[in-house]
Amino acid sequence: MKKILIRSPFIGIGMISVLIFAFHSGGYKPTPTGPVATEAGLVSGIKNETTGVTAYKGIPFAAPPIGELRWKKPQPTTPWKGVRICADFGPSPMQVKPVPFLVYTKEFLIPEKPVSEDCLYLNVWTRAAKGDKRPVFVWIYGGAFLSGGTAVPIYDGEAMAKKGIVFVSVNYRVGVFGFLASAALSQESPNHASGNYALMDQIAGLEWIQKNIAAFGGDPANVTIAGQSAGSMSVNCLVASPVAKGLFKNAISESGSMLINDPESLSTAEQQGEALTKYVHAGSLTELRKIPAEDLMKFSGHYAPIVDGYVLPKSVAEIFASDQQNHVPVLLGWNADESFVFGFKNKEVFQQEAKEKYGAKAEEYFKYYPAQTQEQADRSQIRMSRDLIFALSGYKWAGLQSSEKNSPAYVYYFARKLPATAEYVKYGAFHTGEVAYVMDNLKFLDRPWESADTALAGLMSDYWVNFVSTGNPNGKGLPPWPAYNTKEYPAMVFDKTSGTQTLPDQGALAFLLAQSVH
Fold this sequence. Notes:
The structure is a single chain. The protein has helices at 158-162, 175-179, 183-188, 197-212, 230-240, 266-279, 285-288, 293-296, 316-321, 347-358, 362-368, 374-401, 435-438, 451-470, 506-515, and strands at 2-5, 10-11, 19-22, 30-32, 36-37, 42-44, 46-48, 53-60, 83-85, 121-126, 134-140, 166-170, 218-228, 250-254, 330-335, 409-414, 490-494, 499-502. The protein is an alpha/beta fold. It has two domains: 52-77 and 90-328, Rossmann fold; 333-518, Rossmann fold, CATH 3.40.50.1820. It starts with a strand and ends with a helix.
């Protein structure tokens, strides 16, 4: 669709906004909507008359985190007069230029522009009216906490909103802007903490939803947080965080949690902040906040959630172990082929390292990760990468959740090898591959889809919508999906033919978990 949009940033009530849409295809008929009242002012969106879904893009949910607000908890947005036209995504968070890599083509990446520190915007897709109280789905994107944004094409919310929920996606700061800690930042904070600004952004988005989503036909008492990869780890942190208490009812975790690898302490993270301050020759926080964003990104550091004493008072594992997490139903899982192996070890090296690490348990290890031939060793290294990075933490979460009578876990295993050209076929059911199915967004991903893929996308999105609605993915006409338990280990396996099986590789995951310190 070619879109010509003539507008001013704000228009008063009763004034005419001129929007001309031409050359639309596929039955898409966009129409500007009447205003919806938010806490900060009126917003208008664009309605697809064919689907009945209205998209409100680029709604500010907090003040721009720039200048003196860089590395501070999100602050309230400044109210505006008139009607704010929300037809386009706000800027994506500051990050390096998005460039396709491996299997990740442009459909998985944010647009190259605009990218800015002024990034705290969210988007709403809805076909509901004020007072409808539809379930609310909140998407938190992945990107290794270094990249990503809500404008990624496969994150479009129209298809799921068409199925009866209100879809919200929330931008958050990444990299140095989302996680920098320092003693000076902790000292100036009323919470005596620094870092975890990305998680505070997500919480601010959830707080905006509590105050405003009813105006879009959403139910603030029925909110589900969902994320993939770093977004999934964020979901796990929010489930653990006392600051997020009461802001959501259910959680969806796709590929990852923080339950295995301990996050850094505040003191350790503060040391990195001191190193950055020296690197850019800043003598104070005031000077540091004046350093151009591009210069700050040149400093290579570890950026991820930390135990800051505020958002996360303890590690996620400790919070769960002491039963202090937010008790909510969880839908979680991982993909069959998601891994990151950049160069394979010789089988003799792989064998020797395993013997050194597992000692008397090495023979049992080789039962699950064989390495008698180089081909076996290569495949075992792929599976080990998947299990240690993505599956094991989810497996642990599912096991902990299985004892929750009123907050069950529903586990999935995505095994569909995405159809692809010869260039991409080797990646199979790769990391992030399930997202286009979950959101029923195959049309946004350029692959040689088969009828089985269309059916699978419909099935998975139905399960997700049911879970968002009730905390249970089951529904009329769908294959039964039992809650997870540690006797039968049931999991929904998604493939050309989907159904419940014993969780694949359960024995290997149980072995790895038994060897972990947790």
